[in-house]
Amino acid sequence: MPDRTRDVTFAAFVAAERPMLQGVAYLVHGRADRAERVVEATLAHLFEDWPVQGPMSDVALRRLMAVGPHQLDLPWRQRARVELIDTAHTSTAPPGIAADLAALGLEQRQLVILRHFAGLSLARIAQLTGQAFDAVHELDRSAREQLIQADREREDDTVLAAQLAAAIPFQLRTALPPQLDLDHGKQLVRRKVGRRLAIAAAAISVLVGTAVWAPRAPLGAATSPPAPVPISAQSSSAPPCRHSDDDCRASVLTAWRLQMADVITSYLDPEHNYFSEPTYGDGPAYENRGFWQGEGGALGLDLSPNVSGATVVYLQVATSRTFAVRCGTLTKQNCVAQRFMDGNRFILTETTYPYEGLEVQFAPDGREVVTVVARNAAHGRALDISRGDLIGLVQDSRLRLPHA
What we know:
The chain folds into 2 domains: 3-172, Up-down Bundle (Butyryl-CoA Dehydrogenase, subunit A, domain 3), CATH 1.20.140.160; 246-394, no CATH class. The protein is built from 11 helices and 7 strands. It has helices at 3-29, 32-48, 56-65, 97-102, 106-116, 122-129, 133-150, 157-167, 178-211, 246-268, 387-394, and strands at 275-279, 298-305, 311-318, 335-339, 345-349, 358-362, 369-376.
């Protein structure tokens, strides 16, 4: 299949199926961060073999269920942590259907999710998992019994399906830009090619070492230099508009800022009674022109309070740390780097409240850098937020730059 057609068909599949895969992964593992890594790895490795034989969604689900720790060693994740994902299920999921799923055995949990969330029939699940139909039917019966014991309303399949869907965290209900998974898949392909070249080079070096002891070729024998090893270029996501298309840029920026404001509000102002419409200033902190030329840059916005408020929130998303605002610049505070127990690394101020100035910076995929700053800029009612609130906010997968 030509590369262009391969990319287009894969991107279309990701756009259509990623939300379902994210939901399945979350319900299986009980943690949003783990679900994101599992789906990320599944789709990246799926691209290596694209196009696949058989129903594409079935192939993706089968691979998602079988992701092993070695497949979570992903080159685009900084200091990626490898963890067991298919052993005894100890979930920190909130009470409800997610916690009840965690009490099931792994096979029971997977079957319930495939049938009542992904909508697969028992026959199709048997084919997908390679189990006998009778075995699948028995697993379904025992799993349903346990779930119904915790909530009698689950005897109705529609109630069970609704509870499963409602348990999915909001950030996992929509797809990321397909270009991210496309780039990740290409990185794995390049890594595989690089390993093959390294093995070939090692084999050649052994042959060259052996040749020292071999009879020399006659003087004047024709020789040819080895072919140069190709070096693949790092691909990057294209900007959504041409640099010269002012109307497109204005439309994309407006939509992006409104979307980012909605994400911020969902964490810091869920009642929607504190912030007004997003605003922005001049300069690279709010719009770096190089971003529209595909050269890297940053976009930002301010979310200001209504007339009685004091706390302003600034958000910036940059293509790399080169373009990200330096931590401490806006609040005049010292910043430190901290790695948490879940493996995530943040750069943040040691302050606690907005009147001191709070800043948190996070690079979720080792590329785009998300910066959130909260500070009191006027007299009035300060927003009751903490540094922990901002740490939770910057990890939301919707905080991304717009891409084509």
